[in-house]
Amino acid sequence: MRNLQGRLDLCSINTATLGHREPISLTIERIARAGFGGIAPWRREIESADIAQVARQIKTSGLAVTGYCRSTALPAATPAEFNANVDANRAALRDAATLNAQCFVMVTGGLAAQSRDLPGARSQVTEGIAMLLETARDCGVPLAIEPLHPMYAADRAVVNTLEQALAICRAVDAANTGYVGVAIDAYHCWWDPALAHAIGTAGREKRILAYHTCDWLRDTRDMLLDRGMMGDGVIDLPALRQSVETAGYDGLIEVEIFSAQNWWQRDPDHVLATCAERLQTLC
Amino acid sequence: MRNLQGRLDLCSINTATLGHREPISLTIERIARAGFGGIAPWRREIESADIAQVARQIKTSGLAVTGYCRSTALPAATPAEFNANVDANRAALRDAATLNAQCFVMVTGGLAAQSRDLPGARSQVTEGIAMLLETARDCGVPLAIEPLHPMYAADRAVVNTLEQALAICRAVDAANTGYVGVAIDAYHCWWDPALAHAIGTAGREKRILAYHTCDWLRDTRDMLLDRGMMGDGVIDLPALRQSVETAGYDGLIEVEIFSAQNWWQRDPDHVLATCAERLQTLC
């Protein structure tokens, strides 16, 4: 496993970690100044800004873009809505290319409104990703399917385990073109009894496109916005990173913390300094 | 699949559904009067009462005991604590026998205090269940391992998928004596992409000891106490029961709803009437 001490160049900050409280230009500045090697911005920040200028600033700052967050939900109640969702993702993929993003993060979407058809939603996800693959190749930006924690199966993502994400990769890209893979997020996957096996498989298939870290708080108070800073929770983060790197992952380690009542209330530079310290000592 | 219309004798009420607001004697009375065929009481109700009298009342009421809730958490920081946990479960198993319970529900426990050792906790669970098997056989009460939703992996149960529970069954009881199996709860398992396969396996191995129902609310507000009444959420309950019964399960359908802000605020007889109606029409 790589030693992260003194290697913040191997670490990236997902802008959600700072709570999206400031303009993207200032966020880029802070992250670069703190010494990180990468950034993962969100569409909400990019689509409301001058994307060419943002791309230039990121490049000038020497930051890699470890991912562009994130896909429009795919499952839909009607074919027209489904196609619109796919098209929205095509547009976002072009922006991801402009940003020179290493991947486009696919949070696949939950059940369509009023629907109880989980297998149907999962089929739509596979179909939608298959439809996006050509655009991904044209743009030179791989699709990173991010399995989300099962507690989000209803409303955010019907892809809930790494093995399931890998099965979708195989279904849409049997030839393994490099344009569809997975984003492994410690928060979403840490509990999975089949995780070690799935990480090994993902590595052998060369599908690991991103690795996200944060921590699971034992007394989680909110299902969405109460993620922990690395070291404050129960995940054995060094063991997890070791398994991901042993499987061949050599990309950046990206911090992504949603924390409305704690970290999003704090000074952004303090948050970044804490991330830096924890990454180097506890991850 | 069995038709539940007019067949409340095939349905059971877990007493948690009524919020544990009344003495167990009154709860038994209400559940029997509403026409249900079974009850699943909790240790908190039984251990504070005259258990022989409770057992007599349940028997006289004609109710089956579809499960006794629930095991003391197994994972522990010290061997002494671990052995105390196992012993507490032995005592509870004897009470389960007195109650003539069809199974003892094993909610296995989360990580030990201050621990990040998930594989270690899982090993302790397997070890503890192996140690309890003889007592279960002596008492004539099978152990029903209940995989809990992954959002409880830290604090409530490190067994989080049906396949994982089945693997423990095989590890401790390769001979398949009938004294260790699984409790399948719709709330905990509905999201699992491998569920249909695991239910089939569980059926072939004759390990399905209980089936619990309720619903997952799309806008769940609390990770523990916001379960939905059947029909109010997103789970395809008829499809799930069909798969469980196709796999050979012919026991009762047990309703278990934790709902602090909604159903626990309502009149118990109204809650039972609602359960009865939903069971017969939507499950």
Provide the CATH top-level class of chain A: Alpha Beta
Structural class of chain A: alpha/beta
- Beta-sheet strand percentage of chain A? 5-15%
Largest interface in this structure? A-B, 33 and 33 residues
- Quaternary structure classification: homodimer
Provide the low-confidence segments of chain A as ranges: none
Report the helical percentage of chain A.
Answer: 40-55%
CATH architecture of chain A: Alpha-Beta Barrel
Main β sheet profile of chain A: 9 strands, parallel
Number of domains of chain A: 1
* Mean pLDDT score of chain A: 98
Order of helices and strands of chain A: EHEHHEEHEHEHEHHEHEH
Number of helices of chain A: 10
**Gyration radius over CA of chain A:** 18 Å
C-alpha geometry of chain A? globular
Provide an overview of this structure.
Two copies of one chain form a homodimer. Chain A is of the alpha/beta class and 283 residues long. Chain A has one domain (8-282): Divalent-metal-dependent TIM barrel enzymes (TIM Barrel, Alpha-Beta Barrel). The first copy, chain A, contains ten helices and nine strands. Chain A has helices at residues 24-33, 43-46, 51-60, 79-98, 118-139, 162-172, 186-189, 195-204, 237-246, 268-282; strands at residues 11-14, 38-40, 64-65, 68-69, 104-106, 143-145, 180-185, 208-213, 253-255. Chain A has a nine-stranded parallel sheet with strand order 3-2-1-9-8-7-6-5-4. The longest helix of chain A has 22 residues, at 118-139. The first copy, chain A, starts with 10 loop residues before the first strand and ends with a helix. The mean pLDDT of chain A is 98. The interface between A and B is medium-sized, with 33 and 33 residues.
